[in-house]
Amino acid sequence: MSTKDDISDDLAYVKALAEEGRDTPLVGGIMYVIWGGLIGAAALLVYAHAMRWINLGPMAGYAPWLTASAIGWVLSIILGRRTSRKPGAATLGNKTATAVWFSVGVFITGFWFVLMAIHGNFTDVGVPPYFLFGLMFPMFFGLYGVALYATATAARATWLRWFAALSWIMSAISMVLMASPHQMLVAVIGCFLGVAAPGLILMRNEPSEIV
Predict the structure, then answer these.
(1) How far apart are CA 149 and CA 208, in angstroms?
(2) Which of 54, 73, 93, 159 is the most exposed place for a label (fewest CB within 10 A)?
(3) Residue 193 and residue 166 in contact, taking contact as beta carbons nearer than 8 Å
(4) What is the residue-wise DSSP string for 118-156?
(5) 42-62: b (≥16 Cβ within 10 Å) or e
(6) CB 151 within 8 A of CB 25
(7) Which of 17, 29, 22 is nearest to 153 (CA)?
(8) How remote is the C-alpha of 76 from its chain's centroid?
(9) What is the pLDDT of residues 75-91, one digit of tens each?
(10) Is the Cα torsion angle 5, 11, 15, 16 positive or negative in sign?
(11) Buried (b) or exposed (e) across 93-126, using 16+ Cβ within 10 A?
């Protein structure tokens, strides 16, 4: 009986560990804060320039985004290594979330650089130069909504689905305002409320020492 009891206890222990690992909180909240804060700040600068509250000079359409992207990737690499060593980082939920967000970030960055190269190639069919950049935030919030929803499912964090829905709403509004400078204001609100805010919530819920 002792051997059977020991095996039963071991199985119960393994099951408990599996349950704890499955429900481990997400540990990548800092990434949401970094990208939501930086892109939101860049959008705010561009909006302020468009409204003539400030003057960013001839590089107004490029400098804020290039700066935010460069800082974001540097911080992501540095802090990503620390995040990967946090308790629970090796769970399926956290690995899935990391992979989803990394792929979204790579695609958005690559898409922006492609637009920089080809945005003026369609003037002969009536598309004004720089107009295609208006697609960035509809796409940005659409993909972020998908990433948030996938993360919510993988990590069993169903509350993130509300932020996914918010991102999709911001995507639709951004599409409607493509020809308006106020699209940047929507971007500011969406980045701070839909990306940085859930990041702060995740950081608050992160395990500090052991899972």
Answers:
(1) 25
(2) 159
(3) yes
(4) HTTTTGGGTPPTTGGGGGHHHHHHHHHHHHHHHHHHHTT
(5) bbbbbbbbbeeeeeeeeeeee
(6) no
(7) 22
(8) 11
(9) 998 988 888 888 778 88
(10) positive
(11) bbebbbebbeebbeebeeebeeeeeebeeeeeee
Rounded to whole angstroms, how far apart are CA atoms 61 and 29? Answer: 29
Q: What is the pTM of this model?
A: 0.82
- With beta carbons less than 8 A apart as the criterion, state whether 43 and 184 touch: yes
pLDDT digits (tens, 9 = 90+) for 11-43: 554 454 455 445 567 888 889 999 999 999 999
Instruction: Give dist(CA 67, CA 33) in Å, integer.
Output: 16
**Tokens of residue 19, six digits:** 């349950």
Task: Tell me how far apart the alpha carbons of residues 95 and 78 are, in angstroms, rounded to a whole number.
Answer: 17
DSSP string, the chain: -HHHHHHHHHHHHHHHHHHHHHTPPP--HHHHHHHHHHHHHHHHHHHHHHTTSS--GGGTTTHHHHHHHHHHHHHHHHHHHHHTTSTTTTSHHHHHHHHHHHHHHHHHHHHHHHHHHHTTTTGGGTPPTTGGGGGHHHHHHHHHHHHHHHHHHHTT-TTHHHHHHHHHHHHHHHHHTTTSTTHHHHHHHHHIIIIIHHHHHHHHHS-SS--
Distance of CA 16 to the CA centre of its chain: 31
**Region of residue 24 (phi > 0: left; psi between -120 and 50: alpha; otherwise: beta):** beta
**Could you tell me the two tokens for 53?**
């509250």
Among 69, 67, 79, 70, CA closest to 31: 79
